[in-house]
Amino acid sequence: MELGLKGRRALVTGAGKGIGRDTVKALHAAGVQVVSVSRTQSDLDSLVRECPGVEPVCVDLGDWEATERALGNVGPVDLLVNNAAVALLQPFLEITKEAIATSFDVNLRAVIQVSQIVARGMIARGAPGAIVNVSSQASQRAIANHSVYCSTKGAMDMLTKVMALELGPHNIRVNAVNPTVVMTAMGRLYWSDPQKAKTLLDRMPLGRFAEVSDVVDTILFLLSDRSSMTTGSSVLVDGGFLTN
């Protein structure tokens, strides 16, 4: 299915690894000019070698002032993917102030800030746009030791709805993608133990974890005009995990 993205300009956060990196590669292959944001310069360097023409921006999105300096004059953006996130796992009774601050700064506050920058530009140009927030099934299901992470993703889902409500009149669509465990390099390492994986897989009707391409394909669909009547939605890519 032709998505019609060629010639547009996108910004992707968390672009150095995993879902973000593969999203950049897919957009680049579709003829999109991509601004790739990561806090790790070496990841950006290798991405530029792999996808010549990608515009790298190295910044820690947890730093409001640094983000404003790095992206405040980013120029016209038609498509935004808020993918950057951290997962600091602690039992509820051991949650630290630092874990709360870091998690909400990156997983929620940065989404607001980057989306404000991009949406203001869209509105000033009178241009339509699409924003996809990468959330998680953890926004809708309690997971032990994930109190803070689940909370940030639950907040992201509601933020997505309010953004859709307020930005819709400007012809800017906002949706979330909510994956299950994804087989990134980190996902494969963390879930390589068959017994550990079985606890989740036994509850998934499709019986497998998501591949990165499963998530990227959903992101690209939501960015494209093929989903022009979809906004304010949280799209599950979870193999049916939340059906039971």
In words, what does this structure look like?
It is a single chain. The chain is globular, with a radius of gyration of 17 Å. Helix 1 crosses helix 8 (212-223). The longest helix is centred in the middle third of the chain and has 29 residues, at 97-125. By secondary structure, it is of the alpha/beta class. The chain has helices spanning 18-29, 41-50, 64-71, 97-125, 147-167, 185-190, 194-201, 212-223, and strands at residues 9-13, 33-38, 55-58, 79-82, 129-134, 172-179, 234-237. Helices cover 43% and strands 15% of the residues. The chain is built from eight helices and seven strands, in the order E-H-E-H-E-H-E-H-E-H-E-H-H-H-E.
Oligomer: single chain
Average pLDDT, rounded to a whole number, is: 96
Helix content: 40-55%
Q: How many H/I helices? A: 8
N-to-C CA distance = 32 Å
Biggest pleated-sheet summary: 7 strands, parallel
**Could you state the order of secondary-structure elements as H and E?**
EHEHEHEHEHEHHHE
Spans of 5+ residues with little confidence (pLDDT < 50)?
A: none
Give Rg in angstroms: 17 Å
In total, the number of strands is: 7
Strand order of the largest sheet: 3-2-1-4-5-6-7
Structural class: alpha/beta
Overall morphology: globular
β-strand percent reads: 15-25%
Furnish the topology, listing elements before pairings.
Elements (H helix, E strand, L loop, with lengths): L8 E5 L4 H12 L3 E6 L2 H10 L4 E4 L5 H8 L7 E4 L14 H29 L3 E6 L12 H21 L4 E8 L5 H6 L3 H8 L10 H12 L10 E4 L7
Parallel strand pairs: 1-2, 1-4, 2-3, 4-5, 5-6, 6-7
